[in-house]
């Protein structure tokens, strides 16, 4: 599903130019992808060099293609409201803190111990969108989001632990990169940005994330009839680590260090019980870390950034970020619908405004 932001003060000529440019760039880009990969694209600071991904003679990079496609759609950090597909609006509270795009001060981070099946297929010359799994679908969503808004992006292929579940890679990876950024936005592969055109700054404003909040996470669904599920020993709902906004504050590194070392039972007795059982590092954070640093953790309602449509418990339906614990194939559907809205908007504009006089009106149906 995709929504359209308000038009604001954009002029018709600007919108027309951007639409036409987007279409031309998109066509050239797809033509360029038929050649071997070679040209790197520039992104972030000069010190960060990204892998080459497209043709030697390509007129534009995939960054430019994506950004031009989304230029008519992209919301500003202070956009007064976001329009839902059903016509309703999500209004931004007054006095937003983040007024400008943070660019390379934000890192969109993916962590995986699994190789991408789609990459294996690509290397064999067998890549097909229809056959990729939800892992690639989610990662493509995250990477595209970074391109649209000019954020840095990293995919870390991590080594598995020998003594604990793979999800324990999160604290150390976050700790090793937070010093270089103001914010790290992490998502599991089965989580996705619902609206690719809405920047993280808008969401930070909407959620009222202040400089003291080291961690922002959404709560898990909680059922009063079965309070033992998704709850800690005090029947308090866990926060889900499938989506995290980590801010670089004076408390962030101490929290990450305590979290990473938790299973060693030094600071927190019995934390080693969460090395393997569910919910691994999430349980450890919920049982121990947040109680020592409670005021620095922003807990969002489940429906804000967890779950997906159809989840009734806690109304956990993924308002801004969706986390498909089940029905994981829907990650690809969300991504497809986002992209198709951006691709078809300039096409629709051509027909709506009869650009190039492609529409001919006839007065009668006769053979001349």
From TrEMBL:
Signal peptide: none annotated. Keywords: Glycosyltransferase, Membrane, Transferase, Transmembrane, Transmembrane helix. GO terms for biological process: protein N-linked glycosylation. The chain crosses the membrane at residues 12-33. It comes from the Eukaryota. Residues 181-293 form the Nucleotide-diphospho-sugar transferase domain. Pfam families: Nucleotid_trans. One of its GO terms (cellular component) is Golgi membrane. GO terms for molecular function: glycosyltransferase activity. Belongs to the glycosyltransferase 77 family. Belongs to the glycosyltransferase 34 family. PANTHER family: ALPHA-1,6-MANNOSYLTRANSFERASE MNN11-RELATED (PTHR31306), NUCLEOTIDE-DIPHOSPHO-SUGAR TRANSFERASE DOMAIN-CONTAINING PROTEIN (PTHR31306:SF3). This is Nucleotide-diphospho-sugar transferase domain-containing protein. It comes from Ophiobolus disseminans.
């Amino acid at each position: 599903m995709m929504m359209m932001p308000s038009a604001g003060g954009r002029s018709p000529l600007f919108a027309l130019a951007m639409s036409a440019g987007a279409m031309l760039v998109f066509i050239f880009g797809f033509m360029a992808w038929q050649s071997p990969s070679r040209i790197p694209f520039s992104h972030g600071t000069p010190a960060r060099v990204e892998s080459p991904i497209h043709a030697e003679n390509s007129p534009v990079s995939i960054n430019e293609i994506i950004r031009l496609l989304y230029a008519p759609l992209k919301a500003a950090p202070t956009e007064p409201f976001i329009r839902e597909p059903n016509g309703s609006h999500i209004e931004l509270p007054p006095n937003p803190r983040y007024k400008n795009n943070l660019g390379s001060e934000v890192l969109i981070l993916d962590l995986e111990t699994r190789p991408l099946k789609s990459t294996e297929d690509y290397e064999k010359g067998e890549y097909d969108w229809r056959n990729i799994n939800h892992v690639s679908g989610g990662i493509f969503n995250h990477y595209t989001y970074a391109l649209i808004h000019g954020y840095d992006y990293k995919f870390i292929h991590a080594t598995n632990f020998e003594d604990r579940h793979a999800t324990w890679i999160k604290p150390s990876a976050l700790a090793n990169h937070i010093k270089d950024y103001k914010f790290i936005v992490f998502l599991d592969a089965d989580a996705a940005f619902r609206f690719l055109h809405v920047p993280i700054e808008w969401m930070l404003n909407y959620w009222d994330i202040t400089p003291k909040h080291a961690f922002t996470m959404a709560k898990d669904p909680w059922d009063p009839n079965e309070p033992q599920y998704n709850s800690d020993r005090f029947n308090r709902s866990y926060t889900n680590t499938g989506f995290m906004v980590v801010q670089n504050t004076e408390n962030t590194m101490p929290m990450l260090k305590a979290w990473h070392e938790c299973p060693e039972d030094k600071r927190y007795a019995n934390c080693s019980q969460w090395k393997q059982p569910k919910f691994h590092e999430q349980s450890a954070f919920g049982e121990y870390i947040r109680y020592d640093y409670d005021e620095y953790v922003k807990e969002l309602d489940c429906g804000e950034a967890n779950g997906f449509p159809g989840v009734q418990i806690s109304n956990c339906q993924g308002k801004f970020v969706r986390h498909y614990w089940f029905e994981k194939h829907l990650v690809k559907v969300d991504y497809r619908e986002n992209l198709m809205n951006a691709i078809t908007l300039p096409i629709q504009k051509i027909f709506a405004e009869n650009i190039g006089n492609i529409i001919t009106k006839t007065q009668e149906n006769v053979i001349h």
